[in-house]
Amino acid sequence: MRATARVRRVRDGRLEFSKEWLQLRNPHAPISVLDECQIERIHDASMTVLEDVGMRIQDEEARKLFAGAGFTVDHPTERVHFDREGLLELVAKAPSIATVRGRDPHKKLFMGEGRVAFTAVSGPPFVSDLDHGRRAGTFRDQENFLKMTHMTDVLQIEGGTSVEAQDLPADTRYLDFYLACCKLSDKPWKPLTIGRHRARDAIEMAKIWYGEDEESLAANPVFFVNTNTNTPLVLDGEIAQGVIEYARLGQVVCVTPFGLAGAMAPATVAGALVMQNAETLACCALTQIIRPGCPYIYGGFICNADMKTGSPAFGTPEFTLGAQATGQMARRYGLPWRSSNVNASNAPDAQAAYESMMSLWGALTGHASVFNHGAGWLEGGLVGSYEKFILDIEMVRMMCAWMTPLTVNDDTIGLDAIKEVGPGGHFFGTAHTLARYENAFYKPLVSDWSNFENWQDKGSPDAARRANGIWKQMVNEYEAPAIDPAVIEELEDYVARRKIELEALR
């Protein structure tokens, strides 16, 4: 399928939102910023780290699994030391392509070997828009981001709590989020990984939502699960529990180190690559011990710290180089890999746009398989921005158009049109142009290509103000996908019962 997104302008100037399903594929060759010798030096250094330094695994069951697989475990310090041969033998069991599906049977994704998927932003505690400013996220905001994600064809996977619902109880609001995912979209969704019970609840609700047993869910995965190590060299206990539960069910697991160069990793891109490689491969090995062949996404998230403030500096040249190099490392092990569309700006402004474009460009030219935070990330991930969501959709759509293969044949070259116009004419009225009038070039969602006078007559709206109107239209025009009311009732009963059980533990 063509990669170009289908959101387009209609005659009255409003927007029509496509419900088509896009499976994106990158036809271009990946950029290589490392030579083979450098790749092997990073590999060898990361193996040395795992052998000599080891990794602290803060979950007893995970340590027992590693011990059972033949790795050296020091239980008092919680450190696991990995021999490289045993580690690489396990990593080789993970497939090169991962699949995940939504409730709509047509909404199935392939990630890896050039295939690309995008998710919405994940996890910010705050939300912002031009009307109400920056504020704590609410369940209504969470629902709005779910609706916009469902309406957008360039986002194939829900983000995973695109905004944290701080108006709901902290220990049970994940259940409200799961239920909203089931009600508001038929796309794949990302459940939480913090603790065994959150994973089990997601699995039980998926069994109801899909009407399938665990064997069927394992054979045809429904979850793309993303989580993080606690860099440097720590796997948190509750995170490990979630990974174990999802891996047992054969779901798509991605564990991503946060390689903040200068803070949680050495102050070089090369050093951050070593840390990232060591940590994500150790977690890959865990999934393969649990279930050989479990789909695993190599987690990539290298950026640098602002050495004056200690803050993450996203969308930098180092982020771009790190993403391109991460692609090379992931391909060395035959794994799909994950990147992000990120920026460090505090407003949906020019800085937010150019840092995001650096992030997108580096990861796509490095052949990323899936993008977390594909739309809506602001303020270094602390804010889910309505306007930035729309601006990101525009940028992702532009990158999708770039991934559409260039066609060169007699028809596209247009020799007849060139002969018809001759020297000094124009092509506006030729048959060749008129036949392509509607779909000749990329159609903007946010960009305004009118001249200054026409733009001024519209009230001189900048890109953020135009995006403000678009997200409101998306929310207003949202239509929920069809679902059997009996399924919703069963899901609601499950959530109500689990809330009572969890509240009793307070």
Automatic annotation (TrEMBL):
It is an enzyme of class 2 (transferase). It comes from the Bacteria. Belongs to the trimethylamine methyltransferase family. Keywords: Methyltransferase, Transferase. It comes from Mesorhizobium waimense. Its EC number is 2.1.1.-. One of its GO terms (molecular function) is methyltransferase activity. This is Methyltransferase. The keyword Protein biosynthesis does not apply. The keyword Transferase applies. Pfam families: MTTB. One of its GO terms (biological process) is methanogenesis. Transmembrane segments: none annotated.
